[in-house]
Structures
1.
Amino acid sequence: MKGLAQNDDRFQGREGFGQWEHALQAHCGAFQCEPPPGREIAGFCGQIISPAFDSTRVGARIISNSPHIHRSHHDIRQDDNDCFFLVHQASGSALIEHGEQRNLLHPGDLVLLDATRPCDIRFQGMAGQLSLILPRNTVQRLASGRRLLLNRTLRADSAPGRIAGALVSELFESSSDNSEETEAMMDALLRLIRPLVSEDMRQPSSCAPRTQAQLLNKVRQAINDSLANPELSPLSLAQAMGCSLRTLHRLFAHEGITLGRYIMERRLERCAETLSRHTDKQKISSIAFDCGFSDLSHFSRAFKARYGQSPKDYRTASGN
């Protein structure tokens, strides 16, 4: 199912529930959904949003106040989804029963579900999940021939869980048309979720620690030197460093941050440094452009999310 259009429509009420359930099935396979009980169905609200990157069926962002989503043996026989769902709890919480285990997911937690086994997902109020479909052979390679473990949780408060969740979010939100970059991010994500499928907690590395540290320092310096360039991207960095995108994404995943997020943080820090100095005569838009931002509204939102103040208020508080 290639090229599913991203859908930002909100489904509401009784009719909207049926449309939402159909959209979920189109993106993720045979699942049955329970509407809010009785008259509460009038208050149903949900969204199904496909990832920004184009691929074969890859999952969806699922948002709703449907109390129960489940996949039974009958549903499993209805489709041929011999795959796994990597579920990232984006908001709210959900109780998941899969096999003989039950897990309560909180925001940021991840779990891997086998599509060939029944599962129950019970949302607690309005909740959102990112569900990424992974082929079975991809997951089996992660287990390295060991027995696959089911329904384990990678918690948001762990380093692998934090960066894996950030990578899933970037995969869903990135509008990059570069398949190589998408594959590199996926490769880094798969290495991080290895603990979900196998007891083997080792994280193999493609280069020696000293070589990694040297490359990391070079990449950081290249980023600092190129912040003003709005075309600065993981791909351009890989080309400049003479290494693969996979290597760069693994390198920053090991540091507990995605490469894209690191670039954004450095740009925001550079803007904050400039605003806190003698910049009263320089327009804020000029400062943003000098730091590589080409969209002023995006810059303002990102700056406020990072510093808790608008750029204008931040400069005023700094005495300029």
2.
Amino acid sequence: MKKLAFIFMISVFGLSYAQQQPKVLKTSFSKEALVQKLEDEEGKNITIQQILDQHKGKVLVIDFWAGWCRDCLKALPKAEELEKNNPNVDFVFLSLERSKEGFDKSLDRFNMKDKDNYWFASGWKNDFNNYVDLNWIPRYMVVDQKSSIAKYYAISPEDPEIQETINRLSK
């Protein structure tokens, strides 16, 4: 009986904490978040600001994921469908793999090589992820044509607000 109560407590309290939507839904990035460095597939450093600059003028969906994340892998087909259904929208995939080797293997294993991929070499806890209240993956954000945050928090590519935001911005 104690074991059952313990499992219940973990499932209720653990999941509610992990997927808790932030109280403040931010609409812009801080200066510290924008200078956060990631690595591209070749191992070259790039900042969040540089990534946003590459996509300025376009609607951008940011997908936080990792190959070790079961929920991310379950969501991958729906994320690909979202991308396919929105050919005029740019998609960027930010990996939370634990190593560069893991990043490279996941890109190959999950056929991600033809996508815009970056890896947080600094790990999960960094200025960007802390600023955007990253507490769960997968996580999705929509950024407008001027690099402002249009949809701050979604944990599924099937969240209808993602498509609604894309549609509103694409008018």
3.
Amino acid sequence: MSLRYALCALLTSQPMTGYDVYKHFEQSVGYVWHAPDSQIYPELRRMEADGLITGKDERWGTKGTKKRYSITPSGEQAFRAWMNETLDYPRERNPISLKTAYLEWASPEAARAQMRAHIEHYAALIIVWQDMIDAIHDHSNPVLAKRLENYPESEWPRIEGYKALAYEGMIERAQAEVRWAKRALTVIDDLA
């Protein structure tokens, strides 16, 4: 259900076509909630059917049309209600922990390769997320820049601060994953 609210969050910045939603999703919300276009477009249609957003057909090219979506007052109310609820935490599915619990079945070389891949994966994400924090602070993220146009400058530190906080948390978790995987390399060497 969080995809619905991720889309609401995005549409609170400005009306967008389905394609724009997908493109901007990847540049903003997509860093904290992954969803392919095969999930986004059907969810937009369900949200429209539920009255959370409205879609208006616009001419596109010489013969085509595209739909521009806007969040409705009901959509804003549902989004605000969701924001004010405490999350129910789902049970985790953590493939690296599952795999690590049974590394005795892997060769030491394969176990080391897995941990090095884990380190590389999270190290790359740290760079991406730090770039996102920088884009939040310098307003070079187009979705954030558009959102800020709708608010007085006195509100900007709060808007930026919460967005940066989300990425800072992701960076801290990624740094913990890197530390853990480096420790795992030592354990693999000790147990090999």
4.
Amino acid sequence: MAKGWLKAIADTPEIRSAVDVVGLVDVNPSAAKALAEEFGLAEAIVGSDLGDVLTKTSADVVFDVVVPSARHDVVSTALAHGCHVLSEKPMASSIEEGRSLIAQATAAGKVHAIVQNRRFISGIRRIRRLVDSGALGELTAIHCDFFIGAHFGGFREEMDNVLLLDMAIHTFDAARFIADKVPMAVYCHESNPRGSWYAHGAAANAIFEFSDDVTFTYRGSWCAEGANTSWESLWRIIGTKGTLLWDGAETFTAHQVAGTEGFFRPLEAVPVPEPANEAQTHGHASVIADFLAAIQTGGQPETISNDNINSLAMVFAAIESARTRQRVTL
């Protein structure tokens, strides 16, 4: 994961000119040394203790790319050293830890944001523009399907609630962004299908209630072999006047009702607009740029933690619903 972040920095001129990587920290220092060599960071201090490296470097920003179970300690340490922090998702291993980090960031007067890179892609931005345009009428439902047979190895295959906690949060956050609504409640069924190579929770089906009577459904599996969807899911966005279909890649199909007669009303195609800001469509690089701009201007990044906790709340409410087999309010 750290390699992807360093590549985003190296490949994006405006980020590269704003960021000097002064330290790399890993529980396995040889891994950090290998990254330093790969990216030509000969001057960077390498160590296994974050606090020590922060003291030696006087860094301004920490990019937190650790496993979720280590996140609270890492972010707390960074904030205590006066650093702004951009974290991988999920922002915390519990809602309580998420709230703790928000309080610490507020007390420190530092920007704490989360990498929700999958809302910073062209498809999601285009859908949001179409919904905002009113061409589909009033939004009523969002339906997403995610089915991929992914063999990661490593920590993911040992996690509890692996799909909901490590992957579904991307789709949940994107749906919340597209709908621009507040998640209110969820009913979720979670399973670990026969043949799964994950320890727990490789599949889930969830029904969310958003504000203004908008329904969001999610069907997903990380151990579904034979017909992978896009990593961005398959989407159906329904409004009172029409529907948009997106394959999660390059194909959009949108139609609205064009008449008042007939068993099936006549339809006409609706063009899906291009993103309003192309700079917001480059995934990790766009999140990092948004984060740095907020630090420089004193503003708030789009994925600031006190907003992103709403996406995290969707995940933990779904997990709680699956555990109790009950509808759970957020």
